[in-house]
Each structure stands twice: as structure tokens, then as C-alpha cells.
Design a protein that fits this description.
Elements lengths: L22 H6 L15 E7 L5 E7 L1 H4 L4 E6 H6 L31 E2 L5 E7 L2 H8 L3 E6 L6 H4 L14 E8 L1 H9 L3 E12 L8 E7 L4 E6 L4 H12 L7 E4 L15 H13 L3 E4 L5 H4 L3 E12 L5 E13 L27 E9 L13 H19 L3 H8 L8 E2 L5 E2 L4 H11 L5 H10 L3 E10 L8 E7 L5 E5 L8 H13 L6 E4 L17 H27 L7 E4 L2 E4 L5 E3 H7 L15 E6 L8 E10 L6 E11 L6 H20 L31 E5 L17 H18 L13 H13 L1
Parallel strand pairs: 1-12, 10-11, 14-15, 20-21, 27-28
Antiparallel strand pairs: 1-5, 2-4, 2-6, 3-5, 7-15, 8-13, 9-10, 9-12, 13-14, 16-17, 18-26, 19-20, 19-25, 22-23, 23-24, 26-27
């Protein structure tokens, strides 16, 4: 509370205000509590021995020398874990294969026993007194591997004759279907023109500021586990560990998560290292700490994206879309460890119809197993992929139909008169102004002046491109969230949230909602999240849900505070409850000057003599809010690039976003969210990619020497314009914003690159559009 800037007390601090983040004072002055800051009494250190092979039979694991090394406390293998009978989480979502049989969902063992199935698969864990001793001993573990054929490409793995990741099944785990196949086939049968394209969405990694970590402890007296970990959803991690792994009541497991150095989905759920550190802590009766090394990250973590989509658009004679077909190959890696892996893109591809009035659509997605790290939700979780595919297809269609891309979109955008609109794939768009978004973006980006800017670039020997994308996403699904407002006898308050911040500025924006509703001084509010013992319930942060669902729960809890406060104030002010009004943090009697502050009412709540008869003392209110519908943040992204044809280097010239995220809580933090999302989308288009060597399955991009990340000089000045259309689907009117930047950036940047290359005759290019790839494609078209 002391870290709140003094200016906050005098400035407007409510919903809609551009308040600087309260937590930044603490985080930027070295007072944060990140995962690796945790150190416990008698703590040991853990290092994992990971498979160097993409696919190999394990003949034996010799741990004798490692066990005798200095400082070693224990060395465990998969056999030790299996002998203790510890369970494994299972994917339970009902999915089927194409022939109607149940899906093949191989579980991910904590430590492999008989076969390693990707580079990085954990084979053994070494625990020692110090990290250095554990690392040295891990080098002494001898594993006898029998290498087997492997496959790391999702497209190759889907072929019938590809090497099998699992002997008992081909590499197709299951197939997801959405839409009406019969109606879509009928639409294609009468189409005047069909456009078909194949697009690759590369495999990437979150590359957060702090790599993952875990500390497991066990109290034999209470028979209770405690996990310190950097996760998105502490309560769900606790529930999975209790119910599915250790088979104990939830009260026997505590999960604590403090500051998180970035998550982006990849830190979301329960990893094998969580259960292993807890299991080892129980066996040793000492805390066990694991810290993922930066060089270990891409082997240890789940990855994102990695899909190949073939899309077809059917047009009538007036260039109106009458049908859409999509077949996707979506990588799930070597294992399906939990339902989390089935969320993307399988559950989110419905927005591939975009903002367009498409009467019929049919989508099939094959989940493909390969000798790679498992995949999981990564910022956007299927929505950037959907946006990328439809918006690139619209550009291709405009070229084939010889229609301006803007005009083609104008003909097909869902008009305001049709809202609310149920799409052919199921999503229900309750509100939005799609045409206005696009027209605002074109106007604000000076589209009419682009021809002159392109000519100026040409005069300097440069290629210039204008790209835009109408982006929509499905966010904030109908799962519940919890908020609690707990006043203290002094009148100050504690705010407890079931969501979990991992860099978004939750403390600031939730206090803004609280102060807006109750008029409380933010310096007198303590913010708590991320501890399953302190916060009663929570579903955590993912899918742009925190503000929509968590903020709505907080709004409902604030209403309960006001309702109880009115009863107490009416008693103290000797008035009828119906005559009590509440504004700006004060209860007053209508039409009089009699009033008292909420803080005084809160103090009175702890004094039984001052309360109405039969009222329970105390002032604690909570709420659990469950929406009934998803929200659909949307907008239009516009990007201009210059390309040097001699080197292939792409230079961003401008970037503009017109966004509709519903009610804006804090324009400043919203801009930060969009900036970060755009950077991640741009990074995937220009440079980021997890690459495996095709023959050996070796990971070629295991460090920042090979995995390229966007830097400040890769970006340009960014302008954000809001066109908010609040939804009536939740008390706040919010739609969510955490992933909006990433959803629109991928297609906008790639469309700009393709537009710049168009005069040379370049028609197709897959991400990442590195300078080398662009230079080669320019060379090839010139040679042809």
C-alpha cells in the first residue's frame, strides 16, 4: 500500500481513467517476488536428465555413479515413480476419430520408463544439496538408448506411412468437426468461383521473462503438500494435483503463486515438474526446488501453434461468400497430457469465419501426434490462427476475383442491422460495429495517401506494402470466477481475486473497479491473488477472461457491500433503508445533509451495539460470477512496411489498431496489452519459429542464438483508437483485451509484406517472413 504513488490520492481513480500501474513501483525497484526468489529452509535442488533423442527405446538407466556423487540426496527414475503408484492426469473431453472410435490420447508420464518420444522428454531427476552438485551428478546418469525413426513435421506426421509415435495407433489422435457439411457442400456446388489456399502457422514458444520453476514441500504432520509455482490458474492446478495425481482432498494441497514473469498461456496448467517436486519432497521430507534453465526452456515447456490449414471460399457471381471449408492439421506433440491441449485450436477455430456474413461453413481438424514437445494454448489460443487464415484468404480471393481487397470485405462484412449474429460455425456475436471499425482504421491510417507513400519508397529503391485485417476472437468463456471484499475493523479493505496476474496489471485495474464502485482510497486496499489458502476459489487467468469474469464478480461483490452498508447506515442515520443513497463512497439520506462515509459504516459493522437487531457483525462480501455466453473482442489492424529488395529486410513504417474491447477499464494498461500482443504476433510473422531437424528430430532453436525474438528496433510507433461497443452479457460490459493485439497482428503484418512483394509477382510466402526467405523468393521470381 505504501507503493501507491502519492499523485493517486488526488487524481481521478476509477473505470475509464488512464491510471499508471500501481505494482510498477514495487516491480521496477527490485521488490518483486518472482519464482526464483523463493528459498526455503533445508531446500534441495533438482535437475532433470532429458532425452537427447526425438524417439528412442530406453534399454536401461544407470544411476549408481550419480547417486554416489558429492552432495547428492537422491536420484529417481520413471520406475521409482511408477512403483509409488502416483497417477497421471487424463484428457477427458469427448473426442472421436474419423471412424467414430474413441480418440487416442496418450498420457504424459512424469518420467518416461520404456521410451522417450521427443527431445527433452524427462528420464530421471537428480536431487542434491546445491544446484551445481545436482548438475554435476546429472552428467553421471547413464542412459542406454536405442534410437527409433522419428517425425517432427505436422504435415509429414499426418501421412499414412509416417513413422509412428505410438505403436498402437497411427498419428491421428482424433478429428474435430464444426458446422454443417451438407449445407456447405451444397453452397460449393453452386459457387461461381472457388478460392483455395494452404497456410502454415509455425510452432513457437512463449519465451517469457522468467523461465518456469517449482518448489515442492510436504508436511508429514499435516500430510499436506505445498507447491510454489508460476502458474496461471493456481486453484485448478491444486485441484488436478489433489484429485487426479495424489488422490487426496483439495485441502491437502496448497498452491502459492507470487509474481510471474510472463505467462502467455504456456505456464497455465500443471506440468510434470510440479508433481515430481511434490512427490520427491514427500519421499525426502525436505523441500525440492527446480529452476528451469534458459537453455532448457524449449525442451521442458509446451509449445504453441504448429498448424497447417487448407481453406476454401465459395463466392457467388457478385463476390459474396456463400460457403467456407477448412481442413486443419493441428500438432499436439508426443502426448495429450490434459484437456488443456484440446483447447487450441480445436475449441477456438469457430472464428475462422471472421466478421463476414458467411451462411454455411464446415471445419475439420485432425489432431496430429509427432515426436515434438506437446502443444498448449499460447496467446490467442487458436484465434490468431483463425484470423490469419481467413484474412490471408480474403486477400488471395481479391486478387483472383480482380476486386480491391477493401471492396471485397465491404461486400461481405456482417452489417449492423444483422446484429446480434449467429455464425455458421456456432459463435454468437452479440454486438459490434465491424464496418465502422474498418472505415475508422482506413481513415486514421490515411489509406488514400498510400499511393504517394509507395511511390516515394519506390523512388528510394524500396518496396512498400499496406496490409490490414479485420480481427475477431472468442474470449471469456462461461466459467465462474470469484471475488471477495473483506473489510477490517479499521475500515481499510482487502481485495481477494480468483484470477491470477502474470504481468497484466490486475492490482491496478481491479482497484479501479473497486474504487469506482465504492469510492475507496486505493492506498487503503490490500490486493491478494495466487494463493489457494487465502483465496477461496478461482479459475485463474486465460482467454482474456480476467476483467470480463473476474471484474464482473468484483462488481457483484461491491453491490453486496453497498446493500449491507445501506442497512447499517439507515440504522445509524435513523432513516428508512429505502431513503439511503450511495454515491462517491458516502451513504446519505435522500433530501437531507445527513451522511456518513463507507469507511465509517465499515467500522460500525464490527461493533455489535451499533448494528441493527439480528445483523451479524462484520463486513465481508464475496461473489462468484458465471457468464452464460462468450464475448467477442474485435477490431481492425493496419500495418505499413517497407522491404529492401536487395536484402529482404522488412522495416515497419506504421501500425494502427481500431479496437472494440467493450468497456475500457484503463486505457493505459489496455494500450500495453495491445502493444505486447502485436509484438508477439509480429514476432511470429517475421522471425520466431521452433525448428526441428527433419531427419534426427533434434531441436535446432534451443537458445536465443537460434530462436530469434523481436526487439525494440523491430517495432514502430503504434497508434490505438477505440471504438467500444459494450456488451450486455456481463455487468461490466467488458469483452476482454489480453489477446486482441496478437489476433490481429499476424494477418495484418503478413498482408502488408505480401502487398509490398506483389509488384514483383510474388504470390505465396509462409511465415516466418525472414529477410533470407524474402530475399530468396525475390531472387526466384526474378529468375523465373
Amino acid at each position: 500500500m505504501d507503493d501507491v504513488p502519492a499523485s493517486t490520492a488526488t487524481m481521478k481513480f476509477g473505470v475509464g481513467q488512464p491510471v499508471r500501474r500501481l505494482e510498477d513501483v514495487r516491480l521496477l525497484t527490485g521488490k518483486g517476488r518472482y519464482q526464483d526468489d523463493q528459498t526455503l529452509y533445508r531446500q534441495t535442488w533438482c535437475v532433470f536428465v532429458r532425452s537427447p533423442h526425438a524417439h528412442a527405446r530406453i534399454r536401461s538407466v544407470d544411476v549408481v555413479a550419480a547417486s554416489r556423487a558429492p552432495g547428492v540426496v537422491a536420484v529417481f527414475t520413471g520406475t521409482d515413480y511408477a512403483n509409488d503408484g502416483i497417477a497421471m492426469p487424463k484428457a477427458a473431453m469427448p473426442r472421436k476419430k474419423r471412424d467414430g472410435s474413441p480418440m487416442f490420447a496418450p498420457q504424459r508420464p512424469a518420467l518416461v520408463v520404456d521410451r522417450a518420444r521427443y527431445v527433452g522428454d524427462p528420464v530421471a531427476m537428480v536431487i542434491a544439496e546445491t544446484l551445481t552438485q545436482a548438475k554435476d551428478a546429472a552428467e553421471l546418469v547413464v542412459v542406454d538408448y536405442d534410437p527409433l525413426p522419428s517425425v517432427t513435421s505436422v504435415a509429414t506426421a499426418a501421412e499414412p506411412d509416417a513413422p509412428r509415435v505410438w505403436d498402437e495407433n497411427d498419428n491421428i489422435s482424433h478429428t474435430t468437426e464444426r458446422g454443417n457439411r451438407v449445407a456447405t457442400e451444397a453452397a460449393f456446388a453452386q459457387a461461381a468461383h472457388i478460392v483455395k489456399r494452404r497456410y502454415v502457422i509455425t510452432r513457437v514458444h512463449a519465451q517469457y521473462m522468467e523461465p518456469r520453476g517449482a518448489i515442492g514441500t510436504y508436511d508429514p504432520a499435516e500430510q499436506r503438500y505445498t507447491l510454489f509455482a508460476d502458474v496461471n490458474y493456481p486453484h485448478r492446478v491444486r485441484n488436478m494435483l489433489a484429485n487426479m495425481v495424489f488422490k487426496v482432498p483439495e485441502s491437502s494441497v496448497r498452491v502459492v503463486c507470487h509474481d510471474v514473469g510472463g505467462g502467455f498461456g504456456a505456464k497455465g496448467w500443471q506440468y510434470v515438474e510440479h508433481r515430481l517436486t511434490l512427490w520427491a519432497a514427500r519421499k525426502l521430507e525436505r523441500p525440492v526446488k527446480w529452476r528451469c534453465e534458459r537453455s532448457e526452456v524449449l525442451m521442458a515447456d509446451e509449445h504453441g501453434r504448429d498448424n497447417v490449414g487448407t481453406i476454401e471460399l465459395a463466392f457467388d457471381a457478385n463476390a459474396k461468400i456463400i460457403g467456407l471449408r477448412l481442413h486443419m492439421l493441428a500438432s499436439v506433440g508426443a502426448y495429450i497430457a490434459s484437456d488443456r491441449q484440446l483447447l487450441t485450436p480445436f475449441g477456438q477455430i469457430g472464428t475462422v469465419v471472421g466478421m463476414y456474413d458467411i451462411p454455411s461453413a464446415y471445419v475439420t481438424i485432425d489432431a496430429v501426434l509427432s515426436n515434438t514437445s506437446p502443444t498448449a494454448p499460447y496467446r490467442g489460443a487458436g484465434r490468431p490462427e483463425a484470423s490469419y487464415i481467413i484474412e490471408r484468404a480474403m486477400e488471395a480471393a481479391a486478387r483472383e476475383l480482380n476486386i480491391d481487397p477493401i471492396e471485397l470485405r465491404r461486400r461481405n462484412l456482417i452489417p449492423d442491422a444483422k446484429m446480434p449474429y449467429k455464425t455458421a460455425l456456432g459463435p454468437f456475436y452479440d454486438c459490434g460495429q465491424f464496418s465502422r471499425n474498418m472505415e475508422m482504421a482506413l481513415d486514421a491510417s490515411d489509406h488514400t495517401g498510400f499511393a504517394a507513400r509507395r511511390e516515394a519508397s519506390r523512388a528510394r529503391g524500396m518496396l512498400r506494402g499496406f496490409g490490414f485485417a479485420n480481427a475477431i476472437e472468442q474470449a471469456a468463456g462461461p466459467t465462474p470466477e470469484y471475488a471477495e471484499i473483506r473489510f477490517q475493523p479499521s475500515g481499510s479493505a482487502i481485495l481477494l481475486m480468483g484470477t491470477k496476474t502474470h504481468g497484466q496489471g490486475h492490482e491496478t485495474v481491479f482497484k479501479q473497479i473497486l474504487c469506482d464502485r465504492l469510492g475507496i482510497d486505493p492506498r487503503e486496499v490490500q490486493f491478494i491473488d495466487g494463493d489457494t489458502d487465502r483465496v477461496a476459489f478461482g479459475m485463474g487467468s486465460n482467454g482474456s477472461r480476467s476483467m470480463v469474469v473476474g471484474g464482473s464478480a468484483l462488481t457483484l461483490a461491491a453491490r453486496k457491500v453497498i446493500d449491507k452498508g445501506k442497512r447499517i447506515a439507515a440504522h445509524l442515520l435513523e432513516a428508512a433503508e429505502a431513503d439511503i443513497e450511495f454515491t462517491d463512497g458516502r451513504f446519505s439520506v435522500a433530501g437531507t445533509d445527513r451522511a456518513m462515509a463507507l469507511k465509517d459504516v465499515a467500522r460500525a459493522a464490527f461493533q455489535p451495539a451499533r448494528l441493527p437487531p439480528d445483523m451479524e457483525p462484520g463486513f465481508y462480501e464475496h461473489a462468484t460470477y458465471a457468464p452464460t455466453l462468450n464475448t467477442f473482442p474485435n477490431g481492425c489492424h493496419v500495418c505499413e512496411v517497407e522491404i529492401d529488395p536487395e536484402t529482404g529486410v522488412v522495416d515497419l513504417q506504421s501500425y494502427l489498431v481500431v479496437d472494440d474491447v467493450g468497456t475500457v477499464i484503463n486505457p493505459l494498461t489496455l494500450a500495453g496489452q495491445i502493444h505486447g500482443g502485436v509484438a508477439q504476433g509480429l514476432g511470429q510473422i517475421l522471425m520466431e519459429q521452433v525448428v526441428y531437424e527433419p531427419e534426427s528430430g533434434q531441436l535446432l532453436t534451443a537458445s536465443f542464438m537460434d530462436y530469434c525474438m523481436p526487439r525494440a528496433d523491430d517495432m514502430c510507433s503504434m497508434r490505438i483508437v477505440s471504438n467500444p461497443v459494450p456488451t450486455e452479457g456481463n455487468p461490466l460490459g467488458a469483452k476482454g483485451a489480453g489477446e486482441a493485439g496478437c489476433v490481429g497482428a499476424m494477418p495484418a503484418v503478413m498482408n502488408a509484406i505480401m502487398h509490398a512483394l506483389e509488384p514483383l509477382g510474388v504470390r505465396e510466402l509462409d511465415m516466418p517472413a525472414t529477410s533470407d526467405r524474402i530475399w530468396r523468393v525475390i531472387r526466384d521470381v526474378k529468375a523465373a
